[in-house]
Design a protein that fits this description.
Largest sheet of chain B: 9 strands, mixed
Structural class of chain B: alpha/beta
Helix content of chain A: 40-55%
Number of strands of chain B: 19
Largest interface: A-B, 126 and 128 residues
Radius of gyration of chain B: 24 Å
Radius of gyration of chain A: 34 Å
Strand order of the largest sheet of chain A: 1-2
Oligomer: heterodimer
Chain lengths: 872, 491
């Protein structure tokens, strides 16, 4: 009963998506068998195949069997499973996505037979193994050379005339390179002519107005000054303007009053905190690894600081991207730690420390990098071509693996291993001091180990059973191994006291403890970073159907065929190089004019974050499936302007914000609303809800408790026990940082992937497992519950109440006015003041509230206003 | 359709969905599903990218293209992985081989092995009901319900490791970041009851499962589809309780004043439906404060019901409360309820690596009666037909021992048992088989995807058409290649 069948371990069905874990079983089953050899054999003629007996076998038994059991998935349905058709001899010999299924030279090794015997990775039919007589039939047929009666085609008649898929085939890379808009070089278009030239403050307006005029729309009137400074301040810093800043702007009648505000905001260090957060969304920035342990990523916060610093310094965008892709290979990496810290980019994603299939998991890690690189820097969903050619875009499966080849040599993430961390030194002479410390530790380790071995030798001599074994060993090598085995084994712990006596066994235990400590590298500042396995990389194969265990053809590093021909030229690494230099080649190409998407994708993002949506609404996808630009000329004009400005962001911010289009109000125009309800043409400036971070930061800013300290390790604001109860070990890896630290800006809040902070999560903070180019802005009752009943809101409402009393004195009207100015920026009207006073009075008179309670709940009401939560 | 410049499947659709979420607000309503129907909701056939009403083919199946059998799902998640051969998968041979070392290929957290010492099942199995189903002595109460249950003995999953296997059972994928089945169900069907979340999760008192909130995450969908943790004692939902010093009249007055301000603000901001949606969300939250505590108030149940769920026995009281609560939730239209039997690590859940007898006696002991009570109670109220109960863990366990000594079994994703009851499932049936030792599924093998497909199918949603456009792909719970429901168990 313990027959062959017992030994089977069916782990996957053939119909599973290929991008899942596989095993090595298939390769084992097939031995050294190579797919490409069989492919060449597939065209072979039928030698003795066409004998009468064989054709009878086919016609009477095999044909009906195939038609009844196989054709539904391998020839009949619109979806062909595994790319394999069993409808004709040619299609059988051609094979599927996993290569050939029949070997005419070595029929025993045919994949088809392995599959029906459930002998490997692929098991067919997927639901149950065939009865023995059917397995025998197919084996006979394969061994006979796959006889097939001429002209027989098992494709069902109905389907023979329809294409395999309802979708049109994607354009070829060559055709798309010539025709598809996104792959054309950026050309600076001329400014369009407009009728109302007085409205055109800068070229941005001309492009917007031309489209409005074509529809007969009028741009909305300018926003009032309070709305405008509120909009601009949130846009560049993520914080509300203070009443003093508003007053100064309103009072400033000079013609460049607004420009002065923009310049001030662009120079604010809070700019980097606001715009750095957008970048963190894009590069899937998280501070833990997800999965069972979801452990924290060591020193990941330095990457966040680097991003904030880079935005504040207005680092050229190409430099910024090059640092992240290949900072470790940069010639000036020695003079600053920023380039090496930037390569933390590679280490930000999810990571399963206990994967089902290690090889496949390594490719999942590479996929994370390919996906992020493709979508974020290039605006292409190259990741869709992991298992097959892209279904919609002109991206080939080989393009995916050629891009992956640039990353092939990266040492896999270990969450704080030697390959993903490096020491950093802030002080001159720091490295020498550290190296000396390491050397001294090494000496200590050697000394401790020598003494441990000494004691072990003593133990062997005194412990009869071990002494007997030791005596039999003849070579010094064996003896050395034995001494080490005992020195670090369990036995000496358990029996040491008996054999060695108390003193020596205690010494032994102490030394073992010390050794653990000594082997630990010295405590030191470190950065999360990338590193490679030396200067030569292993080959990169196409993974058939995305399965890392089924390698196909070898590919070399190269750029998507739709944009560039041939393989990339990788310079020979210098002697002693620690890396292949491949990533530098990639970074140089992505940031060059050869990639027309690089500048387009980034200006589109800048535009999106200012205007609420991109000119291309799908900012991570400029492909065929992505959206077309609503203002293509404006996009290209901005891209060329971006380039002309040296790829600095701040001039683009200023350009966009100085436009009249940006300064429009959100006022409605009935005609435009009726004809263009989604505001595709920008006939007004759209209202937007505050982002999750803005909600929390604004509340803290308004009540006066925001701590504006920048940079450094993350903070851990209060999370209630009820929320912690969802953790396997409630409270694990969630530290306390103290009230003042807790009140720092939300960009500094620790991002634990399995434990999001409720207020940030409720207001649609980025999902961090993949790149997040656009945030949701949901409205849901759980937000309202948190905003009314939550601990955070009630504590902050109390602080706001205290602030009102402190700064406005006992005069309730003044308190109400201040509350309005802090939350909405504007001065309330008399009826509004009365309504607030009435509410507080009635709470006291009818609901039994004390004056303090009434003020607190008035403040809570103010923090819930739509006018506070939305920006005009 | 040959113009490559023309998108066939674009983000516009999603933009419109976002627009509708904002407009619809809250725990998405049924009306929303109706709107999305005309909006290419089922991505695979979507052409109306730019005009909501555009339907190239009027014969396209409507939203409810399948006749729904079930309205709600109660997923009893046996976290940690119960041993199928000790519970529902009767393997007489295995008893005889107890203690013998045999050649057998296994894959668990201890890696891949080629031989192992058989641990004979530690409980006797007896036949029950008209179907004569063999059930282990671990479940004397549940055994009386076998004729309402359909067992799937040939389940397979992709990973025998808790972290990834939990994610797969809940989201269909072994990588984190995808929405959970409860999110998909609410995305597909909307909620019947605007006063309750449509996806409620009840955790074990010992703690959450591995990966915590990833197991009820909305993934790449909007936060509205996130599972809401419901507690059977104390504050049932996070932030549901008013602050101690705030009375109902005070809160009402605050809300009325807020509404006055927000209404005025809205008048000057025509065309932004999210503003009025936010006003309604406050009223919804206010009503939830009344409604949810009532939903979880078990004192409204009579003594016989308490007995049925084992609420008068210390051993079963805790899990019984959650089962009874689940019934009260589905009565109120909650679409997807998930109850975790077991939490935290090791023997706090079904993860019996050490002492199998102790572990399974404990976990079966505290769940057997409540689950039987749930089935009987739903049945007597006529709710079983519209409530789909799903029982199982993220995988099963191996027939052999994990260590040199003891009865503990390692994880096994190659073959395990799950069962379903109610919701249009054919009771008293079993489908699929593992081999003679229960090591691997060999006949009528089903994947987690097939289980998910069956759940969606019973709710009236075509699993191969329910999609969500994300990351350049029409994503599906059952994966881009699709999966068939388990037809053998559908009534």
């Amino acid at each position: 009963m313990m027959g062959k069948d017992m030994a089977k371990f069916p782990r996957r069905k053939f119909s599973r998506p290929a991008a899942v874990l596989g095993g090595v079983a298939l390769l084992c089953a097939l031995g050294t068998f190579a797919f490409w050899e069989i492919r060449s054999a597939a065209a072979a003629e039928m030698p003795k195949t066409a004998s009468a007996d064989n054709l009878k076998l086919f016609d009477q038994q095999v044909k009906p069997f195939l038609a009844a059991n196989c054709i539904k998935c391998h020839g009949g349905e619109t979806k062909i499973k595994g790319g394999l058709r069993l409808t004709s001899r040619d299609s059988v010999l051609k094979g599927g996505d996993d290569g050939a299924v029949v070997s005419l030279d070595a029929p025993d090794k045919s994949l088809l037979l392995a599959a029906i015997n459930y002998g490997g990775e692929i098991k067919m039919p997927p639901d149950s193994k065939l009865p023995p007589d059917k397995i025998e039939l197919l084996t006979k047929w394969v061994k006979a050379g796959v006889p097939w009666t001429a002209g027989v085609d098992l494709t069902p008649a109905v389907l023979a005339e329809t294409p395999a898929s309802g979708r049109p085939d994607p354009p070829t890379p060559e055709a798309a390179r010539k025709s598809f808009w996104a792959f054309q070089p950026v050309k600076r278009p001329p400014l369009p002519a407009v009728k109302d030239s007085a409205w055109v403050r800068n070229p941005v307006d001309a492009f917007i107005l031309a489209k409005l005029e074509a529809k007969g729309f009028k741009p909305a009137p300018p926003a009032d000054k309070v709305s405008l400074i509120r909009r601009a301040t949130y846009d560049l810093t993520g914080l509300p303007p203070t009443p003093a800043e508003i007053d100064a702007f309103v009072a400033d009648q000079s013609t460049n009053a607004y420009e002065k505000v923009i310049d001030r905001l662009l120079a604010s260090p809070h700019y980097g905190e606001k715009w750095g957060r957008y970048w963190l969304d894009l590069v899937r920035y998280g501070e833990s690894n997800s999965y069972e342990r979801d452990n924290p990523k060591p020193n990941v916060w330095r990457y966040r600081d680097y991003v904030i610093r880079s935005f504040n310094d207005d680092k050229p965008y190409d430099r910024f991207v090059k640092e992240q892709l290949a900072g470790d290979e940069m010639p000036d990496a020695a003079s600053s730690y920023d380039p090496i810290i930037a390569t933390g980019f590679y280490r930000l994603g999810i990571w399963d420390d206990e994967p089902n299939d290690r090889l496949q998991a390594r490719y999942d890690g590479l996929d994370d990098i390919v996906t992020t690189t493709g979508q974020v820097f290039m605006g292409l969903t190259i990741d869709c071509a992991r298992c097959h050619n892209h279904k919609i875009d002109p991206i080939l499966q080989t393009d995916y693996y050629r891009l992956l080849a640039f990353f092939q040599n990266i040492r896999p993430f270990e969450n704080g291993g030697a390959g993903d961390q490096t020491e950093i030194f802030d002080m001159p002479g720091g490295r020498q001091a550290y190296d000396a410390q390491v050397a001294s530790k090494k000496q200590q380790v050697a000394a401790t180990e020598a003494r441990i071995i000494e004691i072990a030798s003593d133990f062997i001599a005194k412990y009869p059973a071990q002494a007997a074994i030791y005596a039999k060993l003849t070579t010094e090598r064996e003896r050395k191994r034995k001494r080490e085995e005992v020195a670090y084994g369990r036995l000496i712990f358990d029996e040491g006291e008996l054999a060695l006596g108390h003193k020596e066994s205690e010494e032994y235990r102490k030394l073992r403890r010390e050794l653990d400590e000594e082997k630990h590298p010295p405590d030191h500042a470190r950065a999360l970073c990338v590193s490679e396995n030396g200067a030569t990389a292993a080959d990169t194969y196409v993974c058939l159907r995305g399965n890392a265990n089924v390698p196909g053809e070898i590919v070399h590093p190269g750029f998507p065929k739709v944009l560039a021909d041939g393989d990339a030229v990788i310079p020979k690494p210098a002697p002693g190089a620690k890396t292949t230099g491949r990533r530098t080649v990639l970074a140089n190409w992505i940031t060059s004019d050869a990639d027309p998407l690089f500048t387009r994708v980034m200006v589109n993002r800048i535009f999106q974050y200012h205007f609420g949506r991109g000119i291309v609404r799908s900012p991570n996808n400029f492909g065929v499936q992505g959206d077309r630009p609503t203002h293509p000329e404006l996009l290209d004009w901005l891209a060329s302007e971006f380039k002309a400005d040296g790829l600095h962001l701040k001039p683009i911010h200023k350009l966009l914000m100085m436009s009249n289009a940006y300064q429009m109000s959100s006022a409605v125009d009935e005609k435009a609303l009726a004809e263009d309800p989604q505001n595709n043409l920008f006939w007004r400036f759209d209202l937007r809800r505050l982002t999750a971070e803005e909600v929390r930061d604004s509340i803290l800013a308004v009540d006066g408790s925001l701590n504006t300290k920048m940079y450094g390790p993350s903070i851990y604001p209060f999370i209630s026990r009820g929320v912690m109860a969802g953790q396997t070990h409630p409270g694990e890896d969630w530290h306390t940082t103290g009230t003042d630290e807790d009140n720092r800006r939300s960009i500094y809040v620790h991002i634990k992937r399995s434990l999001p902070v409720p207020i940030l999560q409720a207001f649609d903070a980025a999902e961090t497992d993949r790149s997040c180019p656009v945030r949701f802005a949901t409205v849901q009752p759980t937000q309202a519950l948190g905003m009314l009943n939550g601990t955070f809101l009630n504590e902050e409402a109390q602080k706001l109440a205290d602030r009102l009393k402190r700064e406005a004195g006992d005069d309730l009207t003044k308190q109400v006015t201040l509350a309005f100015r802090l939350t909405t920026g504007r001065v309330p009207t008399q009826p509004e003041i009365s309504r607030c006073l009435d509410m507080m009075a009635a709470m006291q008179k009818h609901d039994g509230a004390t004056p303090e309670q009434a003020r607190k709940y008035y403040c809570l009401m103010m923090l819930n206003l739509n006018e506070f939560m939305f920006l005009d | 359709m040959s113009d490559p410049q023309r998108p066939t499947n674009t983000f516009c659709r999603r933009t419109r969905r976002e627009f509708l979420w904002q407009a619809g607000a809250g725990f998405t309503g049924l009306a929303l599903a109706g709107l999305l129907d005309g909006d290419g909701f089922f991505g695979a056939r979507a052409y109306g990218a730019h005009k909501a009403a555009a339907r190239l083919n009027p014969e396209e199946p409507r939203f409810a293209q399948l006749l729904p059998k079930a309205k709600s799902v109660i997923f009893l998640f046996m976290y940690g992985g119960p041993s199928h051969v000790d519970t529902f998968d009767y393997k007489p041979k295995l008893y005889e081989l107890d203690g013998k070392t045999i050649q057998i290929k296994t894959f668990g957290r201890g890696g891949k092995k080629n031989e192992g010492r058989v641990v004979g099942p530690k409980w006797k199995m007896k036949q029950y009901g008209q179907s004569g189903k063999y059930i282990s002595d671990l479940f004397p109460n549940l055994a009386t319900c076998v004729d309402d249950i359909s067992f799937i003995h040939s389940m397979t999953a992709d990973s025998p490791i808790h972290g990834s296997a939990m994610l797969q059972m809940n989201t269909g994928k072994i990588l984190s970041g995808s929405p959970c089945i409860g999110s998909w169900v609410n995305y597909g069907l909307g909620s019947v009851n605007q006063n309750m979340p449509g996806f409620c999760v009840m955790l074990d008192p010992t703690g959450g499962p591995i990966s915590g909130s990833k197991n009820w995450s909305n993934g790449y969908m909007p936060a509205s589809y996130q599972g809401v943790i419901l507690r059977s004692a104390g504050e049932p939902i996070l932030d549901l309780k008013r602050p101690d010093d705030m009375t109902d009249p005070m809160q009402r007055r605050l809300l009325d004043t807020l509404k006055d301000f927000n209404n005025e603000h809205e008048v000057s901001h025509e065309g932004y439906s999210e503003l009025s949606a936010r006003v309604s969300s406050y009223e919804m939250a206010y009503r939830m404060q009344q409604y949810a505590p009532d939903a979880v108030d078990l004192s409204k149940e009579n003594l016989a019901t308490w007995d049925m769920y084992g609420l008068n026995d210390k051993k079963t009281e805790e899990f019984g409360r959650r089962c009874l609560l689940a019934r009260r939730l589905v009565e109120r239209g909650v679409r997807f309820v998930q109850i975790y039997a077991g939490g935290a690590n090791n023997d706090d859940n079904w993860d019996a690596h050490g002492d199998l007898v102790k572990n399974h006696t404990f976990h079966a002991g505290r769940t057997d009666k409540p689950i039987a009570g749930l089935i009987q109670d739903l049945k007597q109220r006529g709710l079983l037909e519209e409530t789909l109960i799903v029982w199982g863990g993220e995988f099963g366990r191996q027939p052999t021992a994990e260590y040199a000594k003891g009865t503990g079994r390692d994880h096994n994703a190659a073959g395990f048992t799950m069962w379903m009851a109610g919701g249009g499932i054919k009771g008293g049936t079993s489908v699929g088989e593992t081999d003679e030792l229960g090591n691997a599924a060999v006949t009528d093998r089903f994947h987690v995807k097939n289980l998910h497909a069956t759940i969606l199918h019973q709710l009236g949603v075509d699993p191969n058409r329910l999609s969500y456009f994300y990351g350049g792909l029409d994503q599906r719970l059952v994966g881009v290649e699709g999966a068939e429901p388990i037809r053998q168990i559908i009534a």
